[in-house]
Automatic annotation (TrEMBL):
Superkingdom of origin: Bacteria
Coiled coil: none
Name of the featured protein: Ferrous iron transport protein B
InterPro entries the record matches: Fe2_transport_prot_B_C, FeoB_GTPase, G_FEOB_dom, Gate_dom, GTP-bd, P-loop_NTPase
Keyword Transmembrane (UniProt): yes
Keyword set includes Translocase: no
Pfam families per the UniProt record, alphabetical: FeoB_C (PF07664), FeoB_N (PF02421), Gate (PF07670)
Keywords for this protein: Membrane, Transmembrane, Transmembrane helix
Residues annotated as domain FeoB-type G: 4-172
Membrane spanning stretches: 224-245, 283-304, 324-346, 358-386, 398-418, 563-582, 594-615
Length: 620
């Protein structure tokens, strides 16, 4: 066979497989300091020292060859050559955490018994040394009967030696015949005993110093200080989103304003100018302005993930989650949903119990995805005064915090109800390893932010742009006769008038009714649609053209209860088509996505209505 030999990276979760994969192939797979980051098989190409190619595969971490959850099944099938359309791997790279050998060697021993060509990557030796451990790689190799290469994936140490070892194995396997041995039924207790004995033989404790992670955890997981610290961290995050973003947002805003007036003065009046000025620059610009806030939020999330703190947060939430019938394993998927529900729903593959998994999928859209941030901050910026409630604590940040909290509370209540009705069943226990604390690397943080920025800008340039141009066309034609409002006379305006009949009782106005349907494509389109509609109306009426910011215009024409109801709607509404599509894929049918959409719409309608009526009753 001429094709490049296939080599798979396997090992326990959080051993550093993806970090090694990136170091070996130059790829940028997501790494994170918690178990369960990788949930799919990812392939990449690596070149050996002599230039020969090898196809490298990164797999979800797993504890044994007996899979407990869907992502672990992928790993077993690839390793045993049972994956459809996939060859048996020519060799395995078993990745183990040098500081956690007794646990990681158990799975390694199981894999070694398969009789495939194997090299062990003894990863994270830097962390082990920090903890006062010295690992004898030669002794380990002798005990295991396979080559062992010491590596530090994040510093690219040992990568060339590992490449060389992979090269040798790939050559050998070309001369081998036959397949993989069927895995013998494993006696876990015996394996664990062997693993512990080997780990002890190869490890020297050089200092009896108490491990640093344990010292930090004495505070971070303390029954009183732990939750206080978590609350304080979250608080700072939401304050920072408003406090730090103003300058760059003003700059972006000014940039788009300049671009807009250039187009207005240099292009002849007509279709092209209006499309560019109203539909593209005003509309998409209104969304891109929020890039700094999104990056600040993600900067914090990435820091908390890389440091190892997120798993502690999961641990503290576990009691609460258990009480509503969710497994602690649901924490990471729900956390990913703060970025976007799509990867969040995919991350539920780490949950073994099917009903547990289904519940988590159904509530994932309730955690506030980053696409909602522009909508939230637009309304908050326009309607909530920027004053301090207490020294250092701004009201705007507090309201944003409350919106996120409302989403989380909604998710917990929904889980509680679902677990007692549609997804009734016992909820299994939760075991999650605590990763060690680490200082996040600047490079990883940079790559993470860069990835986020490109995802957001790509969305703005594709789905948001396309939806908004479509909206612009529908909102610009037919042209309204003098004296009539374009946003009401146009096709989009008439559709909106029909929708308005349904949403009028919960306080929504015609503009909101117009912005809701295109927001199904992407939530940010609610913002660009409002910006575009205001621009069209300002141009078509003879009122002197004001270039007032979107927020200022809304402030002038929306009653406060309407604005608050709009916020409440966005906390709960199932608003994007990609989420519905991924739910269909992960649950194999239309039944659950249909259920999800229905229950979330009801919830959003009730929440927005209650907010509107309450705010009106309070005379706001
Ligand atoms: N100090 C140190 N950190 C490492 C090393 N290798 C990986 N890490 C960090 O360990 C964490 C886990 O790395 P990943 O590559 O995501 O682990 P994984 O094995 O792919 O985990 P799953 O995908 O969850 O199975 C990340 O925070 C990495 O930055 C290493 O050699 N030294
Ligand atoms: Mg991984």
């Amino acid at each position: 066979m001429n094709a490049a030999p296939m080599v798979a990276l396997v090992g326990n979760p959080n051993a550093g497989k993806s970090a090694l994969f990136n170091a070996l192939t130059g790829a940028r797979q997501k790494v994170g300091n918690y178990p369960g980051v990788t949930v799919e098989r990812k392939a990449g190409r690596m070149s050996l020292a002599d230039g020969r190619p090898v196809e490298l595969i990164d797999l979800p971490g797993t504890y044994s060859l007996e899979p407990a959850s869907p992502d672990e099944r992928v790993t077993r099938d690839v390793v045993l050559g049972r994956q459809e359309g996939e060859r048996l791997p020519a060799a395995l790279v078993i990745v183990v955490d040098a500081g956690n050998l007794d646990n990681h060697l158990r799975f390694a021993l199981q894999l070694i018994d398969l009789d495939l060509p194997i090299v062990v990557a003894l990863n994270m030796i830097d962390m082990a040394e920090r903890d006062g451990l010295r690992i004898d790689a030669d002794r380990l190799a002798a005990e295991l009967g396979v080559p062992v290469v010491a590596t530090v994936a994040v510093r690219k140490r040992g990568i060339e030696a590992l490449k060389a070892a992979i090269g040798t194995l790939a050559m050998e396997s070309g001369r081998r015949a036959g397949g993989v041995r069927t895995p013998p039924p494993s006696d876990l207790a015996a394996l664990q005993k062997r693993a512990r004995a080997i780990a002890r033989a190869a490890t020297h404790e050089t200092s009896g110093a108490r491990r640093r992670s344990q010292q930090i955890d004495a505070v971070a997981l303390h029954p009183l200080f732990g939750p206080l610290l978590l609350a304080a961290i979250l608080f700072v995050v939401f304050q920072a989103v408003f406090a730090w973003a103003q300058a760059p947002m003003d700059a972006i805003d000014a940039g788009f304003a300049a671009l807009g007036s250039w187009v207005d003065t240099h292009l002849p009046p007509g279709f092209v100018r209006d499309l560019l000025s109203q539909g593209v620059i005003k509309g998409v610009g209104a969304v891109i302005v929020f890039l700094p806030q999104i990056l600040i939020l993600f900067g914090f999330i990435l820091l908390l993930e890389a440091s190892g703190y997120m798993v502690r947060a999961a641990f503290m939430m576990d009691r609460l989650m258990a009480r509503v019938g969710l497994s602690g394993r649901a924490f990471i998927p729900l956390l990913s949903s703060f970025a976007c529900a799509v990867p969040g729903i995919m991350a539920t593959r780490t949950i073994d119990d099917p009903k547990d998994r289904l519940t988590t999928i159904l509530i994932a859209p309730l955690t506030t995805c980053s696409a909602r941030l522009p909508v939230y901050t637009l309304i908050i910026g326009a309607f909530i005064p920027a004053r301090a409630v207490l020294p250092g604590i701004g009201l705007q940040g507090l309201v944003l915090f409350a919106l996120y909290a409302a989403g989380v509370a909604g998710a917990l209540v929904a889980a509680l109800i679902l677990r007692r009705t549609v997804t009734r069943g016992p909820s299994p226990g939760f075991l999650m390893e605590m990763p060690r604390y680490q200082l996040p690397s600047v490079r990883d943080l940079g790559i993470g932010l860069w990835t986020r920025a490109t995802i957001f800008l790509k969305r703005a340039g594709t789905i948001i742009l396309a939806s908004n141009v479509a909206l612009w066309v529908l909102a610009s034609y037919p042209q309204a006769p003098a004296g009539m409002k374009q946003s009401e006379y146009s096709i989009a305006g008439r559709i909106a008038s029909a929708i308005e009949l349904v949403v009028r009782p919960i306080g929504f106005n015609h503009e909101i009714a117009l912005a809701l349907p295109p927001a199904m494509a992407a939530r940010e389109v609610a913002v660009s649609a409002l910006a575009t509609v205001y621009a069209i109306d300002a141009d078509s009426t003879d009122e002197t053209r004001t270039d007032a910011a979107l927020g200022v215009r809304m402030q002038a024409s929306w009653p406060l209860p309407t604005a608050l109801a709009f916020l409440a709607w966005f906390v709960f509404a199932p608003q994007c088509l990609s989420t519905i599509a991924v739910t269909r894929r992960e649950t194999n049918g239309w039944r659950w996505p249909a259920f999800m959409v229905a229950y979330l719409f009801c919830l959003a309608y009730l929440a927005a209505g209650a907010t509107f009526w309450l705010a009106t009753a309070l005379g706001l």
